[in-house]
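In this section we walk through a basic example: taking a raw amino acid sequence and producing a predicted 3D structure, encoded as discrete structure tokens. The instruction is simple. Fold the sequence below.
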Amino acid sequence: MRNLTLLTDLYELTMGQGYFNEGRHEERAVFDVFFRPNRMITYSVAAGMEQAADYLENLHFDGEDIAYLRSLGIFSEDYLSYLSALRFTGDVRAVREGEIVFPYEPIFTVSAPMVEAQLVETALLTFINHQTLIASKAAKICAAAGGGVMEFGLRRAQGADAGVYGARAAMIGGCVGTSNVYAGKLFHVPVSGTMAHSWVMNFPSELEAFRAYARSFPDGCMLLVDTYDTLRSGVPNAIRVFEELRRAGHEPVGIRLDSGDLAYLSKKARAMLDEAGFERAIICASGDLDETLIRSLKEQGACIDIWGVGTKLITSADMPALGGVYKLAAVYEDGKEIPKIKVSDTTEKITNPGVKEVWRIYDKETGKAIADYITRAGERLDPSRPLTIFHPVDTWKRMTIENFTVRDLREDLFRGGKRVSPARPLSEICAYRAQEMSHFWEEYLRQDMPHIYKVDLSDALYRLKQELVERYRR
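The resulting token sequence is shown next.
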């Protein structure tokens, strides 16, 4: 495993030097990871927690790291000596990977000595921002398709790690497989792929190219039919090879369309395949697809069974960054919590102070999620009594909930530097995401004009926030 301890911004280390000089490096601090809303975010699928946990477990500066930091000429020897022995000793509470999450709620909270808590900011945001972004994009694409989405984006990813961990995140979001062989090996997920146009172009004719491929893969024959002319050449030649395969005792898989009017071509190709007796042959489509185009194709009656989605998934083309942040929520002095807040003229940038918990409230009869509720640590919800919640900005927007159940949205990931929540196989994470998504009404998950899911503050947290805002503005 690579040592990623230096995967950080320089200011994390310079602040650490400052805390060390001030004697505050062992002061305990609490930081929250959360993301703010924008017009593209309706919901998100939390991902990247496994890589974040691996990073924290393996946090250490080796000799080469210390030598490099020394060469910068900005750190004292006693601070470098301190760093050489540093390990993560803190606590972490986090949502599970695959959890459906919303703006403002802390999805990953670090409580640790100040230097440790500050140092890990950049790496944690790198892991969680990227994978949550791609998992969320995948979830929206898979919802539009109704399933059957393959991740095809490695060659368009912003680097090898983005391709590999983007494929992992896409699986969490609902994809059924990937073209990325390395990701398939690492994460034990299905891999899929057939041929490129170059295969067809490398033979004297399209028919010869198809026959050659069928000889190599008689039981896995899917043919790319749009190299020259989809309906006059590609599909007829594919059918001819399929007939030859069937006579030899093999059944073809299907065809792939990668360009042109996918709605028109898929319907025509479906009719041609059916007429030739290949009703079970599937049609796969690829070529700059996303949730908007997939939904449009389905509305047009496109006969597509499998969707290969690459560039717009692996890059999250319409929203290339999640914008998750890591903000100080509290410090401890003599064991006492001192809540901290960032105040801004932009309301959305005012943070929620203090050590917090996040609860999901469900309707007891339907099992559907009603709202998420952020409280101060130690608060408990009593489902036997009505609960009135209110919008944290437009406080006149209120509703009273009865007959409900609640769930703590987060679990302990680390205690005292030791991981206490097990690593889960990707298949379990994917199943959890599907299960949790089923608890939300379609109105909250739809692509166009979704109903805004409520994320509200408890009375105690709201009062604390207002008190701190007024204090610092004075």
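Looking at the output, two observations stand out. The chain has a mean pLDDT of 96. The first strand starts at residue 28 and ends at 35. In the next section we compare this with other chains.
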